[in-house]
Design a protein that fits this description.
The complex is a heterodimer of chains A (455) and B (326).
Chain A lengths: L1 H24 L4 E3 L2 E7 L7 H17 L3 E6 L5 H10 L5 E5 H9 L7 H7 L7 H4 L12 E13 H6 L11 H15 L2 E3 L7 H11 L6 E4 L2 E4 L4 H16 L11 H9 L3 E7 L2 H7 L8 E5 L9 E10 L5 H20 L1 H13 L14 H11 L11 H6 L5 E2 L6 H17 L5 H17 L2
Parallel strand pairs in A: 2-3, 6-9, 11-12
Antiparallel strand pairs in A: 1-2, 4-11, 5-9, 5-10, 5-11, 7-8
Helix pairs in contact in A: 2-14, 9-10, 9-17, 13-14, 17-18
Chain B lengths: L10 H11 L10 H6 L2 H29 L2 E2 L7 E2 L3 H8 L1 H21 L1 H12 L4 H13 L2 H11 L7 H7 L12 H29 L3 H9 L4 H29 L3 H6 L11 H10 L7 H30 L2
The chains are: A alpha/beta (455), B mainly alpha (326).
Organism (chain A): Orlajensenia flava
InterPro entries (chain A): Bact_solute-bd_prot1, SBP
Keywords (chain A): Signal
């Protein structure tokens, strides 16, 4: 009797554990109450409640139109360290976003769903800017995602610091020399960093490339499939020397040289940085996630110099995992079309989207680059004009100048690992007064070539 | 079920011991039925949850990572066995040398500053007559603060501007502002200071407990022989603590070889790889590339580190075996 009772208790405990482990193993998603559950990416963790309110409104609008689909919003942020693990662990939403830099490799690895037929049947595959659509095509012309937003890097500045330093916030600098001069004035007058740049988590390389491209740099060449690293070039050297001068001669870059994307946004929103370069669409995050006051914000184009100068751009693509079934794929396409694309193509959708965002105090009208042709983009801007709530007059420098700049895409091979190598170069220049720029560039160039060859 | 149904829980093991003590009286018959009657099955089932949890969350991943160190995989497409390629790649990586040197530098600094400090503090605190509990609590406080919070706090303290907390303190002594985390030369020592602060409390508590075990007669005898406080510490306290000291030393060596959190949060390995440690390098292999990292290289380096630490621990215990026992 004793033994039987003990065995019964032990078995119950073991079964309970097995049950809970089995529960862990169960995948999310599936069908519930006859509805198909579709997990879609929403915002990065830390977004304010208003963003979720706006999303809830849009979710209701969609579910009313498609009563057989149950939308489940999932917090999501593309981050280099976690993306690969999420991808491997199957914990990504059914519909998620990836940056242009990763799209080619992901589709070559067979990690994205082919959506060629669906995009054709929706009827707007020829409306995309061909340069941007090329980011999501393989060699055979198959399409693996919907480019939903593109940006160009811009020069962001704090209007309050400009005013405090006696500078005119309506006349931001237009050359790198002027940026240096203004940075020094801001630093001397306010004690804050006049200029800062990202340095870690691969963002140092990203922004070094941005600033070098604006001086005409080309970091990679591709001749008949043979990719060559060309980071060791005059424009990149000039950029590093310029940063070194700001740091060591002018002392106008403050005291923090270990900044990543969120670190620099946080410092900028807190009023500790006068100017920095980043994607033109960062305004939304600055206000929504970092608490920046809109009145402080200013945006202009990155200064360009020389005939080869361009502005580095990027963007993201709405994609799906190739592992989802046909029903989820169909629902995913419906969602992408409704949530991301129709607001760029259809007046009613554009107005409804802008209205929902504006009602929840979310940014409407943040400067982006058109993913569709220019005529469609301009038409869309016209539709949403009454709802635009971002301070467009404070971004005039950017909106007036951006279409005169030559857009340049990011390098295609080993982009992120090479950015990681370049992080070290920027860090060395900013933390070591005697850093040998020539030697650093020679080394990073050969290390980058080794990465390319080892691919 | 009532308690009266069950005989005392200890009855079975005691009966077993009885059998074991007098094997000649009753030969023990071992078969499945007696094993079940003897409580073997219920023991196994009671153990099962723990065994399953360990197997799923601990042993399984360990075995899997050993296998993975011989594979090329992005965890999505099928893995390919590549022999010792991952090990060769790791050994050829110039960053490995940097990471080893940095880890040794961290371990060395942590040993010089972090190892004696808790001993000194514990000895001093044990001499205090009143308020010992208060001092223990104060010393242990940093251990209670979540490490991530502590690092973020210290990042504020380490503000390299003249208005940074530490720089203001140094300034009051006429010392110029230091770059702390913002310079290759000072980043690692800055990390060691925080790590020492964070870990000392735990060690102090262990040393205090060990000090209680030192027989007071030894101090009395030393005093009769005319020993002062330093000679008592040198000739009585430290020799009595040696067992604990040896264990704490090897634990510290193992812990410092695996330092990750502080360099990851403080500097991300910078500036210019000045704080890149072995574990941070493993992390970079696995997670820096968003497109499926070099999991093979990451597990290969992890395996090499584990083997090295295993050998080191074994050699250490063999070497100190003679001295660490009373």
């Amino acid at each position: 009797m004793k033994s039987a009772v003990k065995i019964a208790i032990a078995s119950a405990a073991a079964l309970a554990l097995a049950g809970s482990l089995a529960g862990c193993a169960q995948g999310a998603g599936g069908d519930s109450g006859g509805k198909l559950q579709l997990r879609v990416a929403t915002f990065p963790p830390g977004a304010d409640q208003a963003a979720y309110d706006a999303f809830a409104t849009q979710e209701k609008q969609f579910e009313k139109l498609h009563p057989d689909i149950d939308i489940i919003g999932v917090e999501y942020e593309w981050k280099a360290p976690t993306f690969a693990a999420q991808l491997a662990g199957g914990s990504l939403p059914d519909v998620f976003l990836v940056p242009f830099t990763d799209t080619k490799t992901l589709l070559e690895n067979g990690q994205l769903m082919d959506v060629t037929d669906e995009m054709k049947s929706l009827g707007y595959s020829d409306k995309f800017n061909p340069v941007i659509l090329n980011e999501v095509k393989d060699d055979k012309g198959h399409i693996f995602g919907f480019p939903r937003q593109a940006y160009a890097n811009g020069l962001h500045y704090n209007r309050d610091l400009f005013t405090a330093a006696g500078l005119d916030p309506d006349k931001p600098p237009t050359t790198w020399d002027e940026v240096r001069k203004d940075a020094k004035i801001i630093s001397d007058q306010t004690g804050k960093a006049g200029y800062a740049t990202m340095t870690k988590g691969n963002t140092g390389g990203w922004q070094l490339t941005t600033q070098s491209v604006s001086r005409g740099a080309v970091d990679q060449t591709d001749k008949d499939g043979k990719v060559k690293s060309t980071i060791d070039n005059a424009a990149t050297k000039e950029t590093l020397q310029w940063l070194s001068d700001l740091r060591w001669k002018d002392n106008s870059m403050g005291n923090n040289f270990l900044l990543d994307w969120s670190g620099i946004n946080k410092e900028f929103a807190a009023g500790n940085i006068g100017m920095y370069t980043s994607g033109s669409d960062v305004y939304t995050a600055l206000v929504r996630d970092f608490g920046m006051k809109p009145a402080q914000y200013g945006l202009t184009v990155i200064p360009t110099q020389g005939d080869d100068a361009g502005v580095l751009g990027g963007g993201d693509v709405a994609v799906m995992s190739p592992k989802i079934d046909a029903a989820h794929k169909k629902a995913g396409i419906t969602w992408i079309d409704w949530y991301y694309m129709q607001k760029l193509l259809d007046k009613d959708a554009a107005v409804a989207d802008a209205k929902a965002l504006a009602a929840s105090d979310q940014a409407v009208g943040t400067p982006v680059l058109p993913v569709l042709d220019k005529a469609t983009y301009e038409q869309d801007q016209e539709w949403i004009k009454p709802y635009v709530n971002v301070p467009l007059d404070q971004m005039k420098g950017f909106s007036d100048g951006i279409f005169d700049q030559k857009p340049v895409g990011e390098s295609k091979v080993q982009t992120q690992p090479i950015y990681a190598l370049m992080d070290n170069v920027v860090q060395a220049v900013l933390t070591d007064q005697n850093a040998d720029i020539d030697a650093l560039l020679t080394k990073v160039d050969s290390d980058a070539q080794a990465l390319i060859d080892g691919k | 079920m009532t308690m009266t149904d069950d005989p005392p829980a200890l009855a079975e093991p005691m009966r077993d011991e009885g059998v074991a003590r007098h094997p000649q009286k009753r030969k023990r018959v071992r078969n499945p039925a007696s094993w079940v009657r003897g409580g073997g099955l219920s023991n196994l089932i009671f153990l099962a949850p723990m065994l399953i949890v360990f197997a799923v969350f601990s042993w399984g991943p360990i075995v899997q990572s050993v296998v993975m160190s011989f594979q090329k995989t992005n965890l999505v497409t099928p893995a390919v066995f590549v022999g010792f390629d991952n090990f060769a790649k790791v050994l050829a990586d110039p960053n490995l040398g940097t990471a080893i040197v940095n880890t040794l530098y961290f371990a060395g600094l942590a040993l010089v500053f972090g190892f004696p400090l808790p001993i000194i503090l514990a000895v001093l605190m044990s001499e205090v007559k009143r308020g010992k509990g208060l001092y223990s609590a104060l010393a242990y406080m940093p251990v209670v603060i979540p490490p991530v919070v502590a690092v973020l706090l210290w990042t504020v303290f380490y503000d390299a501007s003249p208005n940074g907390v530490f720089n203001v303190i140094l300034g009051s002594f006429g010392i110029p502002p230091q770059p702390w985390l913002q310079s290759s030369a000072t980043a690692m020592p800055s990390i060691v200071i925080e790590a020492t602060w964070a870990a000392a409390g735990g060690s102090i508590i262990i040393y205090l407990a060990a000090l209680i075990g030192v027989p007071p007669e030894l101090y009395d005898a030393a005093e009769v022989d005319g020993a002062g406080i330093w000679r008592k510490i040198w000739h009585v306290t430290l020799p009595q603590l040696r067992g604990v000291l040896f264990i704490m030393l090897i634990l510290q060596v193992i812990a410092t070889s695996q330092v990750f959190l502080e360099p990851y949060l403080f500097t991300g390995g910078g500036p210019n790889n000045a704080t890149l440690t072995i574990l941070l390098l493993i992390y970079r292999y696995a997670f820096q590339n968003s497109l499926g990292g070099a999991y093979g290289e990451a597990t290969a380096l992890s395996l090499m580190l584990a083997i090295f630490l295993g050998i080191l621990s074994f050699a250490y215990f063999k070497l100190t075996e003679r001295w660490s026992t009373n």
